[in-house]
Write a structure and sequence with these properties.
6 helices, globular
Length: 158
Amino acid sequence: MNTLLEKNARLNLLGPPLKKLQHLISVAVLMLALICWFTPVVWETGLFTSFAITVLCLGGVVREIMRLRILKRRLPAEVYQETVLKVGRASIIGYLGPIILFYAGDLLPQYSGVAFALLLFWLIAITVYVSRLNKIAKQLDPAFVTMREIEQYRKPGN
C-alpha cells in the first residue's frame, strides 16, 4: 500500500510540470510549422526538419533534467543514484544521439545513408537499454515512475 501511495505522490509531483513542458514544446513546433506552411522557402531548404528535430530532442533533454531535479529532492540518495539517475542519463544520451547523427548526415551528404542507418540502430538500442533500466529500477524501487507513466498520468477527477 505504501508503494502505491508513494507512486501516486510522485505522479502528482511530476505529472503537471512535465506535461506543461511537453505541451509547450509541441505548440512551438506547431506554430513554426504554420509559419513555414505559408513560406515555401523554409520547406525547400529543409530548415523546418532540422529545427523540429533539434527542438523535440532538446525538449526531451530538458524534461529529463526537470525530472531528475524534482526527484533528487524527493528521494533518498541511494535510491536516486541506483534508479532515477541511471535512467535519466541514458535518456539524455538517447535524445542527444539523434541530433548529432542528423547533423552529421546533413553536413556530410555522402554519408547520409550511413547516418540514417546509425540513427535507426541508435534509437532501437537506446529504447531497449532504457526499458531494461526501467525494469531494473522497478525491481529496486517499486514506486519508480517511468516517463511513459508520467505522460499517461491524468489528474484525479479528469
